[in-house]
Design a protein that fits this description.
α1 packs across α5 and α3 crosses α4. It contains five helices and four strands; from the N terminus they run αββαααββα. It is 38% helix and 16% strand. The C terminus is likely disordered.
Length: 163
Amino acid sequence: MSNISLDAAEEIIAAAHQRARAIGKAVSVAVVDAGGFVVAVRRPDGARPLTPDIARAKAYTAAVMQRPGKMLKKWQESQPVFFSQLSQLPGAAMPILATEGSVTIKKGGEIIGGLGIAGGTADEDQAIADEVLAALGYELEFAAWGVTGTPAGVPSTPAGRES
């Protein structure tokens, strides 16, 4: 398993802060490795005090659940007790937040970390995360939770045929 480097995390954070400033927002940004351990967290001047912790929980969720937070929302809504218990597990370092602004960092088909953005609206946090990761060449497509195979919108090889 590969992990995101500190240099890559700093690049993501700088790009996210630049994008947030362009829309007039002060957001905290957190990047964790594939195991959910903090690589870097930055809270700019003007960001609300709790936003670094929220960003860390969002990044942690995206890494350890191996899916962006917005993909987990329906699962959380259908099984709220299960989701509330996830944060209580002995190995859980942070709460699990199935929400926007929580994006899994994937490169070359491998999950290498998680990104959390906090301080804007839910839609703004998500847009910043998606735009920055896409601009830096990270993958944003994930198969539905519990489904094996090719992510939606990606062509697959027909069964029985080798490519």
